[in-house]
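REQUEST
  id: r-88c1
  op: predict_structure
  target: Transcription antitermination factor NusB
  payload:
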Amino acid sequence: MQSMYAFKGTESDDLIKEQKFLLHSLDSMYDLYLSVVALLIELHKKSKDHNEKIKNKIVKSEADKNLSHKLQDNQLLHLISSNTILQEAISSSKLNFWHLDFEYVDIIFKDILKSDLYKFYTDEKETSFKKDKHFIIDVFTEIIAPNEKLYEFFEDKKLTWIDDLPVVNTAILRILRKLKLTSPETALLPELYKDEDDLEFAKELLQKTFLNNSKFAEEISKKTTNWDSERLASIDGVLLRMALCEFQKFSSIPYKVTINEYLEIAKEYSTPKSSLFINGILDKIVKEYQAENLYLKTGRGLM
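RESPONSE
  id: r-88c1
  status: 200
  body:
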């Protein structure tokens, strides 16, 4: 969608260039994943440094005397921080930049310390990997993932990343929930694609939408004579053209699956009324295809 929206040329322009942009954007999603996990490692380091500074104070407050080491000793954070292949992946990709952008680590760390989550966690006398894991998952969900400063940081760092941040955060939570003390180190280094078919689908969808852009736009315009042309030039128009590509060029994808996917994307990226607009147009097109036996779907249980 981003590639097609950014594209302002015609079918005769350079498709290879657009494919490179697409693949670069997809690879950037993995870099973003490693960067966020690296932040967890830095927060673990910060907890150790914080405790060491308080320990070395000459005059200690009452709170300093009752300093908790639970965050420093958190078993999940230790599992992540001690993962050697994860550390190598972060280092080789040059994504260990949090020591340079330490102010963001400080912001998150202070937010954790003043949170009710931290208070309840440190007040709990019983310790276990399960409790440690639940605490980090809660911190990630309520403090790290929604942090506006982090959004601004990643937006400044690499523009293609910011739209992928919610997807990456969801993936991280899924991985954290599955982690066990006995999990292999590779559990923290998931594959970017489920299989080669995933990558091929991304390239093929871009290619076929790109090469049939004018044809799809013309077909959509016939169904949208009463709609503002600006809407069709926006994200809505891009999503409609991509949906038509799936309708016509991917016989194994059911119409309902395509429609539902693009409605969800519209809700995330376009206007409040976009999903209703897109649903109406696509539903109308599907009914015409089915009435004329065009672009029949193949495979068991497909329609």
